Amino acid sequence: MSGSRGECTAEVHRGRRSLWTVTPPPRSSPAHRRCDAPRLSLLGARSRELYPLAPGSSTHAFSVRMVWVLSLAAAAGAVVVFLVLRLWVVLHSRGVTPRESLSLVVVAGSGGHTTEILRLLESLSSAYSPRHYILADTDEMSAKKINSFELDRANRDSSTMRTRYYLHRIPRSREVQQSWLSTVISTLHSMWVSFPLIYRVKPDLVLCNGPGTCVPICISALLLGILGIKKVIIVYVESICRVETLSLSGKILLHLSDYLVVQWPTLKEKYPKSVYLGRIV
Q: GO cellular component annotations, sorted alphabetically (predicted)?
């Protein structure tokens, strides 16, 4: 018994140089069973030293997944940083190239919004051409007002006879008394339809005055600049009805538009970034 224990001890102490420096006892002997556990532990330790992450092991698979996750996180972070920098550049780039005509997008809203925006267009020359009117797909009243406005304009001024205008329809981003949760979904849907339209038109100027439809349009125009396709000037004119606070669209576009025009001095005092020109409609 003592000889067997000595053989086992000798094997363990000399295991760092050679795992089999002593002739192993027969497999069926008690000495073999006593020496088997230390020998396997030593072999496992040596294997972990030589192959710390053996292919196919659970540790190796976990490490591979972690590498992929960290790589994706780093890539996503780089994209976010790039988009934020591009957004800053686009919002702070106010340079305008002189040109003979400007392609204009006008966002029409139901009721008073359309009336106000058409009054504003009366003071614009025929150089703002072609004009693309964008309205909600359920807004028939605005379509009639726009067609009547363009017909009267052509009859008054023969130089505008050849001025082109187009009507485009997109899904309404928010209905009256619509819940906020469903508004987010409908706005995303409206933006999904708006971006291909804005990409196709590639306007020089977007002019709007308050309807919820203008938010996805302005964001789509902003994306053209972020993606390096074209810098689009966004001008938002707050409704004359807004005396003390901006509308929800105005509060959003205060940070996204190039110029936000207010028609009351109280709004200028409350929102210094805005532009006050007096009553313009």
A: UDP-N-acetylglucosamine transferase complex
